[in-house]
């Protein structure tokens, strides 16, 4: 049993989905502290050949609040949604898979949300379904409530709860987690190096690591599945 555990990000890049695809169970780590200037409420798209940020509006965000307690700004959300969709239209209307990708994004943004965790998780769940692969999703806030444990011990607790023998994380986690500590507790920790193979983005030089929205605009589902998943 392989388990992956990550904070929910807003329309994350392709590496996030590769992590999901590599696991048997994927846990949204939604009851840990919100990270300012991270990827929980923002990401990047391509505009005129350069990356630009988009960011969902939050209400009183704080690194002392948990992700699943961080509210969206309901008064600003609809204005932001309309503006963001217009930005996507201007940036990608000539992309080969614009219509399908826009239908997906608009369907996600049109749903009702109270917290950023709900929006970010839905952006991932619906995109996974759109890319036609299956995964079992869980939330740390609902299924593993021992949030009093220290970082490594809580991850190990989640693994033990699911009888998982392997915990997989992105390659950046190799600087955070000691393999020996996990191995001593009968967990093999592995680190995934994402595959960000270049694809055509109009006539621009390739810009990697953008939101999944970008790759969906320029690639068919079959291409994404064969090259990246």
Report on the structure:
This protein has 229 residues and is of the alpha/beta class. The protein has one domain (2-227). The chain is built from nine helices and nine strands. Helix 7 (179-183) links the parallel strand 8 and strand 9. It starts with a strand and ends with a helix.
Task: Please supply descriptive tags for the structure shown above.
229 residues, two-stranded antiparallel sheet, 9 strands, 38% helix
Overall SS class: alpha/beta
* Main β-sheet, spatial strand arrangement: 7-2-1-8-9
State the separation between the terminal residues, measured CA to CA: 19 Å
Radius of gyration: 18 Å
Molecular shape: globular
The main sheet comes to: 5 strands, parallel
User: What is the H/E order?
Assistant: EHEEEEEHHHEHHEHEHH
Number of domains: 1
Low-confidence residue ranges? none
**Count of runs of 4 or more consecutive helical residues:** 9
Percent of residues in beta strands? 15-25%
Helix content: 25-40%
Number of strands: 9
The averaged pLDDT comes out at 95
Task: Give a quick precis of the structure.
With 229 residues, this protein is of the alpha/beta class. The chain is built from 9 helices and 9 strands.
Give the SSE map.
Layout: E1 2-6, H1 14-21, E2 25-28, E3 42-47, E4 50-55, E5 58-59, E6 71-72, H2 74-92, H3 98-109, H4 116-130, E7 136-139, H5 140-143, H6 151-161, E8 166-170, H7 179-183, E9 188-192, H8 212-218, H9 221-227
Helix pairs in contact: 2-3, 3-4, 3-8
């Amino acid at each position: 049993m392989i388990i992956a555990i990550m904070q929910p990000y807003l329309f994350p890049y392709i590496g996030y989905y590769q992590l999901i695809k590599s696991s048997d169970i994927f846990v949204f780590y939604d009851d840990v502290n919100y990270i300012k200037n991270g990827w929980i409420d923002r990401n990047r798209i391509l505009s005129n050949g350069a990356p630009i940020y988009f960011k969902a509006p939050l209400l009183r965000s704080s690194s002392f609040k948990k992700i699943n307690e961080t509210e969206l700004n309901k008064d600003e959300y609809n204005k932001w949604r309309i503006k963001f969709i217009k930005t996507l239209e201007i940036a990608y209307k000539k992309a080969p898979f614009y219509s399908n990708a826009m239908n997906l994004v608009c369907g996600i943004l049109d749903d009702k949300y109270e917290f950023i965790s709900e929006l970010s998780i839905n952006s991932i769940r619906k995109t996974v379904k759109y890319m036609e692969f299956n995964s079992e999703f869980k939330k740390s806030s609902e299924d593993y409530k021992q949030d009093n444990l220290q970082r490594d011990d809580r991850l190990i607790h989640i693994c033990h709860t699911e009888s998982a023998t392997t915990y997989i994380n992105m390659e950046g986690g190799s600087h955070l987690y000691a393999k020996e500590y996990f191995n001593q507790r009968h967990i093999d920790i592995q680190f995934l190096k994402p595959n960000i193979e270049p694809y055509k983005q109009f006539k621009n030089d390739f810009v990697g690591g953008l939101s999944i929205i970008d790759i969906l605009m320029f690639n068919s589902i079959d291409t994404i599945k064969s090259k990246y998943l």
